[in-house]
Amino acid sequence: MFHDQPIWVCLAVALGLTHITIASVTIFLHRHQAHRSLELHPISSHFFRFWLWLTTGIVTREWVAIHRKHHAKVESVEDPHSPLQYGIAKVLLEGSELYRVEAANSETLQQYGHETPDDWLERNLYARFSYAGIFLMLLINAFLLGPLGITVWAVQMMWIPLFAAGIINGAGHWWGYRNFEPADASTNILPIGAIIGGEELHNNHHAFASSARFSSKWYEIDLGWAYICALQVFGLARVKKVAPRPVIDYQKQGIDVDTLKAVVTNRLHVMSHYASDVIRKVYKEERARADMAGLKILRHGRKLLVRHHVLLDEKSRQRLETLLAQNHALKVVYEFNQRLQTIWQHKTATQENLIQALQDWCHHAEQTGIEALQEFAKTLRAYRLQEA
Q1: What is the arithmetic mean of pLDDT over 24-37?
Q2: Concatenated DSSP letters of 148-183
């Protein structure tokens, strides 16, 4: 029908179609189905289902189950696609194959695939004939664009395997920057989440998996979140949960129940602030006064001081032990880091005991004589919950 269109038009069509697919994955499959962070109107929900059937052949229950298992078993031998287990090359190049292997695991589907679509269309079309849609897409492209339509179709077919199964599952646990330090290797690949609809902000997502918004810093852009906000305007979506944002009120006096709840609720933010406001500052001070031997010990040490202990291999553990043995100030701030985390890890402690533990932590921190730690203790006392 449009066979005489120039190549750049076909390229624009291909990019537009693949971007709709990316939006469908991040909004429908990921944020709505897998994590229930938002609700979708039946109109938008079914559009996304139909589009994914037409352009990817993804079965909702399979994708959701695999992704939920990834979060539940992250970086372990049971993680369906961890580069720490399989190697970065395999996940990048064979991510789709890892997906297919796990999709054939009936136990995974039964345990993690609950509350996914199970209506007549799902049973008799989308799941039963999952590959029919992509062949229909091929016919549509060929009819509209001629031979170039086949190229457009090929680009559509490789987009999700390359970017979702490969780059997000691979590079998103291997390379990039981290705002938070959860017990996994997740990273933010780029602060501008446009190419993959915000999925680039993978570390933020792992830190707050049930949040409909993936951006955390002011300079981070989550295009998927922008689309969700647009859908909300037209009544086609409703956000259920977003990541908490810390509120610090320096007029607040003393540590009370509100302080405790705010610190526990924002614990990943608290530890992120600790890493930047305490560990980073003390580390820079120690580097400034270190001799050549000390600089060698300090090299790359800051990451070891903030990284979750389950992610450290034996060599890293030994380097950390050497660093702490040779530097008293860093040993102190590291130990206070560990002590702070134990406060919200006490599942059976009473509220009064936790408040007392937080008060003791701040009191002892202020007595260390380490300025960065003293200032952080003052800030910690000022945490309060967001007003409803």
Answers
A1: 97
A2: HHHHHHHHHHHHHIIIIIIIIHHGGGTSSB-SS--S
Same domain, 203 and 292: no
Q: Centre a 10 Å sphere on the Cβ of residue 355 and count the other Cβ atoms it contains.
A: 18
What does the alpha-carbon distance between residue 118 and residue 28 come to, in Å, rounded to a whole number? 15
Amino acid residing at 196? I
Residue 2 lies in a domain: no
Amino acid making up residue 5: Q
Count CB atoms within 10 A of the CB of residue 227: 16
The tens digit of pLDDT for each residue in 107-139 reads 999 999 999 999 999 999 999 999 999 999 999
Dihedrals phi, psi of 39, to nearest 5 degrees: -105, 145
Domain boundary among 216, 239, 262: 239
In this structure, are 267 and 179 located in the same domain?
no
Residue 59 lies in a domain: yes
Question: What pTM, to 2 d.p., does this model score?
Answer: 0.92
Taking each continuous run of H as one helix and of E as one strand, the counts in the chain are 21, 6
Q: How far apart are CA 373 and CA 230, in angstroms?
A: 43
Element (H, E) at 323: helix 314-326
For residue 248, give the H/E element and its range.
strand 247-248
